[in-house]
Amino acid sequence: MHQRERSDVTVSRCVLAVLKEKVIPVPQFVENFLPTVIKYLDHDDEAVVAMWSTTLIEAIPLLPVDVLQEHVAPVAIQRSQPTRPVNQRINSCSVLGELALQYEPPLLKKDLLPVCLSLCQDESLEVRSAICTQLEKVIKQLKGDSFKTTL
Q: Start-end of the HEAT repeats (predicted)?
């Protein structure tokens, strides 16, 4: 591992620790750290993207739904568009799956389910496979909410 990669790993772990340990209030985290996490999702180095994606996925359960709706979901939805590179669409699948676990069924149906269903029809086999691994999370959240008619 190169020095730069070690630094990125250390920083990403520290950012997550700040949130987990409640070192600062969530609004400050959202203002000061979340933009950095999101920025690194577009890094040129796939190892850096993977590391920051993991940080984001681990942060999702710790953030309030309104923050997820306003800051995280739009990024995941944007990165899931067919015009985006395959690696970004694959990455968005994991983020969408984790987001699904935090959303209430009506909001999940409205905001995330259409995107997930669209990814199920993606031209890339890798993207379709990635979203299929996340559908269990979506279904878990929709269970008891007549999800069969939705799917």
A: 112-150
